[in-house]
Amino acid sequence: MCSIFGILDIKSDASALRTIALEMSKKLRHRGPDWSGIYTSERAILAHERLAIVGLNSGAQPLYSPDKKLILAVNGEIYNHKEIRARYQDTYDFQTDSDCEVILALYQDKGAELLEELNGIFAFALYDQEKDQFLIGRDHIGIIPLYQGHDEHGNYYVASEMKALVPVCKSISEFPPGSYFSSTDPEPYRYYLRDWTEYDAVKDNLSSKEELTEALEAAVKRQLMTDVPYGVLLSGGLDSSITSAIAKRYAAMRIEDDEQSAAWWPQLHSFAIGLEGAPDLKAAREVAEKIGTIHHEMTYTIQEGLDAIRDVIYHIETYDVTTIRASTPMFLLGRKIKAMGIKMVLSGEGADEIFGGYLYFHKAPNAQEFHEETVRKLLALNLFDCARANKSLAAWGVEGRVPFLDKEFIDVAMRLNPADKMCGNGKMEKHILRECFQDYLPDSIAWRQKEQFSDGVGYNWIDTLKSTAEAKISDQQMATAKFRFPYNTPTTKEGYVYREIFEELFPLESAARCVPGGPSVACSSAKAVEWDESFKNCIDPSGRAVKAVHNEAY
After folding, report:
1. Quick check: is 2 catalytic?
2. Which of 10, 32, 255, 364 shows a CA-CA span of 20 to 30 A to 335?
3. Strands, E assignment, 101-168
């Protein structure tokens, strides 16, 4: 992961703003510890902190067009950069080996319409010096974080994390995923539009397991492009086990040269974390033995997790209960991964949203409700699992990639007939995905019940978080919470604890509005709470809240 920090449409003294940019960009250096760069003019400032993954020797940023009139700062990876580079090799003089430089070539040809051409994870700020115009863009789902704001002079800011904006902006907001914003636009424009968001467009489709299998294998293979050592996060759940198994099949050869040479680091390393005796650890060992990874297992104590909560909230920039529960072990694991010299890992986020993998999907009343909930969940991932997966690892200078959220794969998976995805009536959640990849995995894993990451690391983790908050926050505090926190008022004592810490770290009212709220059962949207009467009396994001479905339900 890298970071970007930009000040655009400058209306005040640029020399003073340059000092601010350097100071604020430094707050993001954990994301990109390898090198720093800055561009400054009277109208725009772009700062960049680099984590070198591809093009190690020539990919320093900001990037410039050959005539130096286009300046680009990018956080991300462009998986189809080779195809785009080949398309423009006769019309654009590439200056570096960076995968991100193709954005400049595309911009010269297509302007803002370049976004749909990209398959990758990214957030970028581009300044066109000749036209005195800027273009801000973010990937289709919001896998890479990006925030925006304005200061008292009306200068426009963008940054990879809100911690770089809170000290200098009057108000901030999350830059919307799947969107771009240019100097000529009144507001961000959504470019990522898909027919599959409508049930009528997919309800009569045929579901091809062969096409689904090939699409995921291609996504994993694409995302193995790297010039540094990489690994896989292996929780022992279905999704991470599938991505790990596929990655192992391609690990021996170098993807960057179309498998013409042996990989520089041919041994695939896998990583798991949990409390002593956690169900995930046992499952992960079983998968690692089956697929042949070099497996690394980390155990942590509940006290170590509790001690990390404040740092987790600072880095993830949230007070959402589910996100903090799951981010804490991932944050701890990220530090261990970095210490072992790994700079990039694959992770399994996105499958539960695409395939209806959360246990509450068993209660979906029909295929239309099921599909519409998957769409809601997928298009809100930037607020939850994407933030966790990206920032937990970026805190230590590790990049996380998510093959299930590959742009091409999503189009295949979301166009499956929703009826073929549904669970219940004897069918397990994500059964179509299990059937596609059951030969890759031990049967005990291919048909293991969904376990949310925050549960799978050990049930005592969540139970202790609840009891600790119960002892710390009084009933009187909860009774008056709406006066202290009128927006998104905490509904549990655990949520109250996290909100207190968040407000201390990010004391800007608009920062709190960057965090979602509303009732949820086992990670459901507020809409899905209506599916079952029992949900209304058990508003808890743990998978164990789904009675008569989870094997260890409350």
Report:
1. yes
2. 255
3. 120-128, 133-138, 147-150, 156-159
* Cα(510)–Cα(19) distance, integer angstroms: 24
Q: Where are the domains of the chain?
A: 3-190, 197-545
Average pLDDT over every residue of 484-489: 96
| Cis peptide, bond prior to residue 266, ω within 30 of zero | no
pLDDT digit string, tens, across residues 110-127: 999 999 999 999 999 999
Type and span of the H or E element at 210: helix 209-222
Residue range 57-100, pLDDT digits in tens: 777 899 999 999 999 999 999 999 999 999 999 999 999 999 99
Say what the pTM is. 0.94
Residue of 2, 100, 436, 523 with catalytic role: 2
β-strands 171-174, 147-150 pairing: antiparallel
Q: What residue numbers does the annotated binding site for ATP cover? A: 233, 273, 347-348
Name the fold adopted by 197-545. Rossmann fold (3.40.50)
Q: Which residues sit in the known binding site for L-glutamine?
A: 99
The confidence score (pLDDT) of residue 553 equals: 46
- Please name the fold of domain 3-190: Glutamine Phosphoribosylpyrophosphate, subunit 1, domain 1 (3.60.20)
User: Following DSSP, what letter does each residue of 1-51 receive, concatenated?
Assistant: --EEEEEES--S-HHHHHHHHHHHHHTTTTT--SEEEEEE-SSEEEEEEE-
Contact 339, 320 (CB under 8 A): no
| Strand, helix or coil for residue 243 | helix
Q: Which residues belong to the annotated binding site? A: 99, 233, 273, 347-348
Note the pLDDT of residue 534: 72
